[in-house]
Design goal:
By secondary structure, the chain is mainly alpha-helical. 70% of the residues lie in helices and 0% in strands. The longest helix has 28 residues. The termini are far apart.
């Protein structure tokens, strides 16, 4: 190429086609994400049933989090979050409802549980109400 080459026209001739309008590649990601949300919903519900049963420690000699890491081989972080969430759901009924309606994500719910670990009574009820209100506003 000599010094008179027009690099602008060369760039437009060799540029890749505009793919921004083609969103077909997003569909599989959206479907997989929906599967993850459904699986987390199912895990929380199953963990709640396991907690209501109450026989895990007697049957296995382990906490729910320990058992979940060894038997179904869940990651430690997930077992810990499930254990914390299920322990706190009865005192966060609005947040629980919004999670099962898919207004709050699993991560949202885990964050609320972490933030409210030291709270109880009226303070906790206030946080539950506040978080539920914020989630409804965000979803609207």
């Amino acid at each position: 190429m000599d010094s008179t080459t027009d690099f602008t026209s060369l760039a437009t001739q060799t540029a890749a086609p505009d793919r921004a309008a083609d969103t077909a590649a997003l569909g599989p990601v959206m479907a997989a994400a929906e599967s993850v949300h459904a699986a987390l919903d199912e895990l929380v519900r199953a963990w709640l049933q396991m907690a209501e049963w109450g026989g895990l420690a007697g049957a296995t000699g382990m906490s729910a989090g320990e058992w979940a890491q060894l038997s179904p081989r869940l990651p430690r972080w997930l077992a810990g979050q499930l254990e914390g969430i299920v322990e706190r759901l009865p005192v966060l009924p609005l947040c629980a409802e919004l999670f099962f309606e898919r207004v709050l994500t699993f991560e949202d719910l885990a964050g609320i549980v972490r933030a409210t670990r030291q709270l109880n009574g009226a303070q906790l009820a206030g946080i539950d109400d506040w978080a539920a209100t914020k989630a409804r506003i965000r979803a609207a």
